Amino acid sequence: MNDSTTAAPAAGAEMPEQRCGLVAIVGRPNVGKSTLLNALVGQKVSITSRKAQTTRHRITGIRSADAAQFVFVDTPGFQTRHTVKGAGALNRNLNKTVQSVMGDVDVVLFVVEAGRFGLDDAKVLSLVPPGKPTLLVANKLDLVRRRAELAPWLKSMQERHPFAEFVPLAATSPDDVRRLLQIVQPYLPEQPWFYDEEALTDRSERFLASEIIREKLFRLTGDELPYTSTVVIDEFKEEGALRRIAATIIVEREAHKGMVIGDKGERLKRIGTDARVELERLMDGKVFLEIWVKVRSGWADDEARLKSYGYE
Ligand SMILES: Nc1nc2c(ncn2[C@@H]2O[C@H](COP(=O)(O)OP(=O)(O)OP(=O)(O)O)[C@@H](O)[C@H]2O)c(=O)[nH]1
């Protein structure tokens, strides 16, 4: 506390201490991380600029409630249903990134399906740095028929890892999600907020553009397309209210290129249209979007190239 503060609150006035901290949500695919993140943030992430605090992390969402600000950070590799197979350097880099993200956050939410703990869950848990406050979030509680059977399972989880808290819940229940925020709150350090109250995420528009195109790409190609396909933004220009964006989808094989382009170019057209519509909504202005598809084999094994695509 600074003694020279002139505008100190009147003696005896209750000033709630401000808390703010970084939270990582990790877990194997399909346990409900995205559902939980969206529920915790309260609405779909949108674009705002950062007020203070430089962070090297990508922020996926911010929730400011009562006296606390929860800053959720991205842990690449756990955000997608596309598992990394046969992508040597990409895999190694993701593991390194995930570990370094978890090393920096104040608290980790380790999400599993209530009553279940498999090898794939164990792999994720093994990446959590020792000593890091970690909460076990046992999600999809609504699907558990016999709640009584959960008690021995929770006990076994207690033996597996020194979890700070055990929170069985359904990410789909707003009451549960509110309770989770209350449980997480004391794990955030007492410090001023990093962001304006209205801020939802600080990801740059350029980065969001690549994420949205990527999302449409994977959504519209289903499971056919390997995870090693990526999106690079070649140009991002603001001309008044218009954004001019040129992007390249990079695939590993000629056959993948065909998948992306589709019959008579239909699929690529759809990816472009869907991405443009969402970007226009997010950026609140017109978007001119051009997408190319390129084959670059073996890129996922090329460390130098990975760096140039922003994976470090
Ligand atoms: N019944 C029930 N279903 C849930 C709950 N939370 C998530 N789901 C469902 O579980 C599925 C996976 O949820 P996601 O949020 O996409 O899971 P994720 O962990 O982000 O998945 P990846 O993107 O593959 O890592 C979806 O069909 C959700 O609707 C829950 O509390 N109860």
Automatic annotation (TrEMBL):
Task: Indicate the segments forming the KH type-2 domain, all copies.
Answer: 213-297
Q: Which domain of life is it from?
A: Bacteria
Where in or outside the cell is it found?
Cytoplasm; Cell inner membrane
Region (G3): which ranges? 74-77
Residue span of region G1: 27-34
Q: How does it assemble?
A: Monomer.
Q: Of which family is this protein a member?
A: Belongs to the TRAFAC class TrmE-Era-EngA-EngB-Septin-like GTPase superfamily. Era GTPase family.
Q: What does this protein do?
A: An essential GTPase that binds both GDP and GTP, with rapid nucleotide exchange. Plays a role in 16S rRNA processing and 30S ribosomal subunit biogenesis and possibly also in cell cycle regulation and energy metabolism.
What is the protein named? GTPase Era
